[in-house]
Amino acid sequence: MIDNQVKVVFTPSGRRGSFPVNTPLLDAARSLGVDIDSVCGGRGLCGRCQVTCSEGSFPKHQITSANTHLSPISETEKSYGLRKKSLAEGRRLSCHTLLLDDCVIDVPAESQVHRQIVRKDAEYRDIQLDVATKLYYVDVPEPDMAVPKGDLQHLLEALAAQWGLNTLTCDALLLSQLQPILKKVGRKLTVAVHKNQTIIALWPGFFDKAYGVAVDVGSTTVAVHLCDLASGEVVASASLMNPQIRFGEDLMSRVSYVMMHPEGVVEMSKAIREALNSLFVEVTKKVNVAVEHIVEITLVANPIMHHLLLGIDPVELGGAPFALTTDAAIEIRACDLDLNINRGGRLYILPCIAGHVGADTAGMILSEEPGQQEKMTLLVDVGTNAEIVLGDKHRLLACSSPTGPAFEGAQISCGQRAAAGAIERVRIDPDSLEATFKVIGSELWSNEPGFDKQTSRFGVTGVCGSGIIEVVAEMYLTGVITEDGVVDGDLAASSPRVIADGRTFSYVLYQPTAADGLCASNQTPIVITQNDIRQIQLAKAALYAGVKLLMDKLEIQQIDRIRLAGAFGSHINVQHAMVLGLIPDCALNQVSSAGNAAGTGARIALLNQQSRHTIEGLVANIEKIETAMEPKFQQYFVDAMAFPNKVDSFSNLFSVLKKPVNKTVIPEISGRRRRRR
Amino acid sequence: MIDNQVKVVFTPSGRRGSFPVNTPLLDAARSLGVDIDSVCGGRGLCGRCQVTCSEGSFPKHQITSANTHLSPISETEKSYGLRKKSLAEGRRLSCHTLLLDDCVIDVPAESQVHRQIVRKDAEYRDIQLDVATKLYYVDVPEPDMAVPKGDLQHLLEALAAQWGLNTLTCDALLLSQLQPILKKVGRKLTVAVHKNQTIIALWPGFFDKAYGVAVDVGSTTVAVHLCDLASGEVVASASLMNPQIRFGEDLMSRVSYVMMHPEGVVEMSKAIREALNSLFVEVTKKVNVAVEHIVEITLVANPIMHHLLLGIDPVELGGAPFALTTDAAIEIRACDLDLNINRGGRLYILPCIAGHVGADTAGMILSEEPGQQEKMTLLVDVGTNAEIVLGDKHRLLACSSPTGPAFEGAQISCGQRAAAGAIERVRIDPDSLEATFKVIGSELWSNEPGFDKQTSRFGVTGVCGSGIIEVVAEMYLTGVITEDGVVDGDLAASSPRVIADGRTFSYVLYQPTAADGLCASNQTPIVITQNDIRQIQLAKAALYAGVKLLMDKLEIQQIDRIRLAGAFGSHINVQHAMVLGLIPDCALNQVSSAGNAAGTGARIALLNQQSRHTIEGLVANIEKIETAMEPKFQQYFVDAMAFPNKVDSFSNLFSVLKKPVNKTVIPEISGRRRRRR
């Protein structure tokens, strides 16, 4: 300390300065631009501005005891400890602590406004917390008859004086709440300010429990994640089946429904909005708060779900030229779409990319950041269409390819949704051609003791998407089907598993017997028909051709990394997928699941407002390829019908087939195909 | 013409320039900044760009025939004439007329974007048409699969290319309309753009019938005026009784209703919104258009009506400190208040001034422009409260004074609304003290033959506001009441008109007789009681005291002009009002009715968007005086109880009483009071 000036250094920012003795720590931090949180504006209510004091960091100055550097624990800090959980050892409220002597102040992560939210997947950068809607506690002066002025004007002036927020407006929908709220706690209230511009919510007194929800509207499943906007953590999640399924299983049948029913758009919009509202109730109940605590929604969806949510007839998306109503990001009041959160709460919908490539793909790009990678990265999200993104930091391309719903188990004779009883993993013995399998709901293989008992409640009911991939890959590896996908009828003579089915042959994946337990009598055999194989060939050819087209555009022969997003991508076995030629050749350890990347993108957009600009910019610059317009697509498609296909060398794949590199993942694939040849 | 350059002068702007031969006139006009209208963007559809050609104005150049200066009548102009009413003689569509030789082009008023709307009251400046919502016809390119893009983005690009509108956004509520509308007329459509920023309405093909409504929500009456936004003309009007009357006759009883009924605000908001919606249907039906043709509403109301319309509990306005929720102007989507106009239509509510001085007063100020006057001007709008504005171009003050509802006929024993059968004019003979009167619904005086027959359908039922003023003034002029407002009981002896009524005396204004016809038996006498006189004294004292207070603040003794606004101001006899001391002394020919000035203000705000900034600025700078805070108010109030009062000299008034200056207006006042004295 020199001339009553105290030196202070804040860590981790390293910002430093000199201040008069008795300067409040929070003021010092702010004047240096140190990133330190506060909702209550220095009133000792919110506890967001906690810091610790490290000693002895000034080499020229002997520091003896922490007590001499900061003012003693104040009454406000003591009463904060009584009301909330006590302040941890050594923690101080910087708003009620005065600088007495030179010191080093550490701002812990949870006291920083822009702290990092750790993503579980270590491959990715953490999310920097920077929410669009922030809370401010404010004390509004009493009205003065001598200077007549509206209470809103009093509030705006108080926000300017106490928080430096000078250009705010207030959503007119909130006007009816203002005076009743002002009356409740002596004209003290907390406001939520959206993008530093608009007051979108009001609560009486001190309030610091604002939430946001990240929403992923899929054709099949709708999922919401409730995030605490203060910590950035997901505090509750919930999902349910998209209620639009009653209007049509897949996207195109919903579009057909709209074309045949004049009220179809209204019905389906209402259905999805009501589903979202019920999910908002569910997630808030889990943490014991009201839906009014939610002030923001971010949302991803494919184009048809996107349009239906907005009440837009998706008919134009059902045929060429697949024109979106809008591809821009949308920011709107949630109540304008009848979504029940806080009355003034906002909804942000990520931008769409093209008629088949929606905000869900934008979410995937935001989450996976292919445009920040040195490595040439392929992102694939498989549904009724496959959304394909390929590129690196220099260039990014996207397209959609019409895989149809075969990968989801639809249009497959024994296909079904991923539910208990669905076969999800399959191995075929190359000599006996007998199959063993696992079903969802049991951890046992079908040839292990106890399998019948474990599955007796639901039986073996069909094959789900990942099971289809495995069984067809195994059929190919064991020679049951040829490279052209024809079931080899000659095998019918030697194996009861291969049976004639009119002019073609089928493979019996599962034949119930009396030994299968109580349910056996109700169960029918599960058979993979020649047509099932054709459906998988069409689907995988479409996917591969789309990828190949983008590789052509980029003039590349090799992809460095593959990330498979969505439920399908999470469950399929990568090598099986590659054996079928679903995805291009790539080092197998560079192929992985991206989980629910679209939903993660929605969460990033919720927690970091800057990311909204990022994805809007990326989407504007992405090169959109329309597969239907590309003459080469058809040729690639035809060539990709074979297994694995006639386009790719699959050098990585075949090196694995010869010499297993990862026994734990695929011990049984290696060598088998060769052995039968 | 020199070197294939043609000279052209546009009148009345006087702008001139040289252009290559064959330049379209509209292009030439625009490049010179000539104010010329167009909705269709030069496609010959709207007919807004009509001009005429004047010849021979270039002294150095001999012009022989109009035909040689402009291209011949084009096919487009001919077909325009076939579709619409033909082009008038000499009129050309400037978008389809090419410059061939030097000429003078006259742009008639109706072809100018910023033309003047003539106000009937010659005292005021015309309204310059400059509407906030403008129409643009636009041709949107077909979607191109090679460059996938949303149809909204196509539309925005087309608006930028065809109209230079580069920074537009579209109200998200319209998204569901876009593609269906694009499909209707080959991707041609008309958009309404609000404040050069936001697309708020869409119509297929060419459309030029956008309307706005100016709304005046009074406690008693709700009035709407439908304006053609192209011409600025009022094309239809309608009004109805404010349905909130069933919750309470006057403002304070409605506030009481809210205080006692938790759902009161919702009920009353719903009632006024439904009333407005029914009026929107009514006015649009009158001109055979749909309510969707309305794209904008501007609205004035007193503070309590203002708050109830917005769904705000007005309870804070019911007592000190009379705090408004907001005093700022409000711009909101009409549908946010459940007002049914075009889905994206906007509502603009003028700013309020103080707790008792509302957007209606702001409308009055916008209409009357006291802040632009050299003369010291007093504006008064009398209702349950009197809103008083006083000032000139240097300074403007406003206050409200609690007159109570006596001037509206309430709290008067025989008082009633202005309806058929209500006495509205009164004369008392100074010698006989007999009264003659006129009632609403009959043009005859009560002593004229045929009066009984004309009034037999409704009878003589009470006295309305203007009648109260006249009868009390006449009672004072004829000495029936003293300067202190006491009915002179001594007169009872000589006149049957003055009768005892307990300890005080009353004046019998009307005594039904058998001769009064069929209704007589149902009719009761109409009597002015001592208490009625007291109510008028209280009301007029409050009004005068408010005016005097503002005169004090401005340190003035004399007012140059008085404008009386509203229904009351339109009907009262100025001299009678001055005899009672209702308004301060002023040259009688400088006192006049301002009609529905508040409603006119709403209309100005509708037709000229700049006026919204003007009134917002004026209101921010106006000095608000709270009468309840002013110690002198009470003294002025007491002193003003007498007739005319004990504050003002009324030199102008007494000079009239001595020497009539205007026999047609008030022949019978002059000299009478003196004669009885």
Structural overview:
2 copies of one chain form a homodimer. The first copy, chain A, is of the alpha/beta class. Chain A has 5 domains: 5-111, Ubiquitin-like (UB roll) (Roll); 127-204, Ubiquitin-like (UB roll) (Roll), CATH 3.10.20; 215-349, Domain of unknown function (DUF4445) (Nucleotidyltransferase, domain 5), CATH 3.30.420.480; 362-404 and 537-676, no CATH class; 414-528, no CATH class. In chain A, 28% of the residues lie in helices and 22% in strands. In chain A, strands 14-13-12-15-17-16 form a 6-stranded mixed beta sheet, with helices on both faces. In chain A, strands 28-27-18-19-20-29 form a 6-stranded mixed beta sheet, with helices on both faces. In chain A, a hairpin with a 3-residue loop joins strand 10 (188-194) and strand 11. In chain A, helix 8 (359-368) crosses helix 14. Chain A is elongated. The model of chain A is unreliable at 57-66, 517-521 and 659-668 (pLDDT under 50). Chains A and B meet through helix 3, helix 4 and strand 16 of A and helix 3, helix 4 and strand 16 of B.
